[in-house]
Amino acid sequence: MAESSETCRELIMLELDIVASVNWNATYGERLREMRGKVPMQRLADEVSEKYGYRVTKQYIQMLERPFGEKASKTVSFILLRYICAVLGNDVQSLFGSPKIIEQNK
């Protein structure tokens, strides 16, 4: 008997470098807002642009934190999320509440 997506989750492990985008929702937006704390959105946008050469605006970060309305993005670049988390001193897995698995190359 098939389980509904509300009672069952299917997980797989992927290398982070092959993920292009993620489905975005208000829960992730709230986590990002908590992670940012008192760091101004403009400063965060500027640091992502300076450190990683990925242009992002204060308005886009605001939309990520409050993804409501018709114009809100339904998907977000995973690399941008990694850069934002790095600037904030976090790993991207903390944004998603996922375990971190590191495999060493032999």
What does this entry look like structurally?
43% of the residues lie in helices and 6% in strands. With 106 residues, it is mostly helical. The protein has one domain: lambda repressor-like DNA-binding domains (434 Repressor (Amino-terminal Domain)). It is globular, with a radius of gyration of 15 Å. The N and C termini lie far apart (41 Å). This is XRE family transcriptional regulator.
Order of helices and strands: EHHHEHH
- Unreliable runs: none
Number of helical segments?
Answer: 5
Major sheet details: 2 strands, antiparallel
Predict the CATH topology: 434 Repressor (Amino-terminal Domain)
Ends apart, CA distance between termini: 41 Å
**CATH architecture identity:** Orthogonal Bundle
- Name the CATH superfamily assignment: lambda repressor-like DNA-binding domains
Query: In percent, how helical is the residue content?
Result: 40-55%
Strand order of the largest sheet: 1-2
Summed over residues and divided by their number, the pLDDT gives a mean of 88
Strand elements, count: 2
Q: Indicate the proportion of strand residues.
A: 5-15%
Shape: globular
- Assembly type of the shown chains? single chain
Using the coordinates above, name the CATH class.
Mainly Alpha
Structural class: mainly alpha
InterPro entries: Lambda_DNA-bd_dom_sf (IPR010982)
Protein name: XRE family transcriptional regulator
Organism: Nostoc paludosum FACHB-159
